[in-house]
Write a structure and sequence with these properties.
mainly alpha; rod-shaped; 83 residues; 4 helices; 0% strand
């Protein structure tokens, strides 16, 4: 009965690892290390992404009130907004 219990515990543990991942990855020290790695990752400054995706949205939603004609909110000092 003891051997059966050990085999079941081992199988349950390894089966859980297969379906749910390593439980050691959920340790607070590992979670905090991953968060700090993500925070230190530089923000992408790809001009293609800005010109194709971001600028059209800003032009439709923001620049009409915060552009060269209207200076609402003093957003005219943002350099990338004048592209």
């Amino acid at each position: 009965m003891g051997a059966t219990g050990l085999v079941m515990m081992s199988a349950g543990h390894h089966g859980g690892e297969i379906s749910h991942g390593d439980p050691m990855n959920s340790l607070p020290s590992k979670v905090l290390a991953e968060r700090s790695k993500k925070q230190n990752t530089p923000v992408a400054t790809d001009p293609v992404v800005y010109t194709q995706f971001i600028h059209p949205i800003m032009e439709a939603k923001c620049i009409s009130c915060h552009g060269a004609d209207k200076q609402k909110g003093h957003y005219d000092s943002i350099p990338w907004l004048s592209c």
